Amino acid sequence: IPVDPFDLVIFGGTGDLAQRKILPALFRRFCAGQWPDDAQIIGAARAEYTPDAFREVVAESLRSHAPAQSRNADALNTFLQRVDYVPLDALSDTAWDRLAAKLADDRVRAFYFSVGPQLFGQLAERIKHHDLATPKTRIVVEKPFGHDLESARALNATLAAHFSEGQIYRIDHYLGKETVQNLMAVRFGNMLFEPLWNSQYVDHIQITVAESVGIDGREEYYDRAGAMRDMMQNHLMQLLCLIAMEPPAKFDPDAVRDEKLKVIRALDPVEPHHIVRGQFDAGPSGAGYRDTVGNPRSTTESYVALRAHVSNWRWAGTPFYLRTGKRLIERSSVINVMFKDAPHSIFGADAGRHANVLSIRLQPNEGITLKVTIKEPGPGGMRLVDVPLDMSFAEALGSENQDPPDAYERLVMDVIRGNQTLFMRGDEVEAAWAWTDPIIAGWQARGDVPKPYDSGSTGPGDAELLMKRDGRRWQGIN
Ligand code: BG6
Predict the structure, then answer these.
(1) Which of 466, 438, 471 is closest to 338 using CA atoms?
(2) Where is each Glucose-6-phosphate dehydrogenase NAD-binding domain found (predicted)?
(3) Beta bridge mates, 384
(4) How confident is the prediction for the chain on average, in pLDDT?
(5) Can 147 be counted among the known catalytic residues?
């Protein structure tokens, strides 16, 4: 379904994110026929490109990042005709009139701030000052949304001085992933799971976002952020929210975000002995962290595992174990809902302990597996064995779904549609920082040094101990 006519201005249009993610996503949607006739993209950045030179840069990026679609020369050329460029410096008042001249009054007008957060205020102010904001204006901001609670509050206040909350789209690209949206479909579209989705039946929940990549090319940013700020505060927190939240009354932006916010606010502070920090050392998959960032004394974590508690009626007593790290043995994002054992085994002690596990694979091999207990075949009495009920989305949904659309395709189009459901609200981001800040402050106060783990391994051994102490073990990579 095509969206309304739009002008999309990408500040930082020559940058990495715009070239690698935003423009290819827009191009794919264009090829899918989702663009109306009256729509254009205007890149804006400091580089003194002519529109034609910018188009060449874009074409190059599309060939690398949307190769299948770019092979269609007609589509590529028609798309490029919809791309324009204005050299513009966020810190100066010149050239804004040139940008204004390219915008149409009656279209959706979206400004994508694909720049560092230090420029958000300047851009917001200049959009207002040069009279570029219309009632159909939206602004899109990327993470990191601040460095801590204080800076996130300041950013929210800066944006709120110029735009209403309904105009601000804060991106957490995990929410744009098909499989992440599917968490809501699985939970709230089936009668099967929801009655069991609470501490009475669920022993604990594991959320793993393991990456095999390192931090190459982003050393400076990453060494200031670390895994806690880069992944836990946002992506893992969002996954936790979707798994733990109450059913919203409807799938509408505030109903969904209200429920997510309640989860974050119900989180207990994390006890220091329930957190493991790690930093990768040299190993089978490459050099060590400190060599990579060129800082031999860096104590930034590239891995974090922790045990969280959502203190509310539904989840009291059911821990959530979250872990994420770089340079691990494989790329694998999985949520495991670990159900309790049956209350009584009629088959006696020999049958062993068996509990159902619902695994939701977010990436790769997107799908769902339910581990169920059955009788071991054979005449030798009643022995039990666990088998997987396995579903791969690609197989179940057919070949056109082999390759799920990139998160940005969904998110950028939702901006144009004016649907904020998959974007973070200001209070949500602040609540997530309010939970994260004391953890980081504790590390700093104690002079905590992350535990080393080999690059290409399963992470620091202490993460296993975190589970073992509770009589549990990680599923998947371990
Ligand atoms: C980004 C983080 O937000 O998400 C990166 O800054 C991380 O460090 C990336 O690699 C992971 O995203 P994906 O989509 O590859 O799982």
Answers:
(1) 471
(2) 9-182
(3) 375
(4) 95
(5) no
Evaluate whether 279 touches 300 at the Cβ level (below 8 Å). yes
pLDDT over 90 at 284, yes or no? no
Catalytic-labelled residue, pool 65, 162, 204, 235: 235
User: φ and ψ at 145, to 5 degrees?
Assistant: -90, 80
Number of domains in the chain: 2
Given the CA of residue 143, which atom of ligand 1 is nearest to it?
3
Known binding residues for NADP(+) are: 46, 143
On the question of pLDDT at 478 being above 70, the answer is no
Domain containing 464 equals: 175-351+425-468
Please report the pLDDT score of residue 354 as a whole number. Answer: 86
Assess whether the C-beta atom of 142 lies below 6 angstroms from ligand 1: no
Q: CATH code at 44?
A: 3.40.50.720
Closest CA to 187 of 176, 197, 178: 197
Residue 102 has pLDDT above 70, yes or no: yes
Pocket test for ligand 1, best of 231, 293, 331, 362 (most atoms within 8 A of CB): 231
Pocket probe for ligand 1: among 170, 211, 219, 301, the residue whose CB has the most ligand atoms within 8 Å is 211
Is the distance from the beta carbon of residue 172 to the nearest atom of ligand 1 less than 6 Å? no
E strand intervals along 64-210: 83-87, 108-113, 137-141, 168-170, 202-210
Q: Tell whether 304 is covered by a domain.
A: yes
- Alpha carbons within 13 angstroms on the beta-carbon side of residue 334 total 22
- Is residue 417 in a domain? no
Looking at the structure, do residues 299 and 439 belong to the same domain, yes or no?
yes
234 and 287 inside one domain: yes
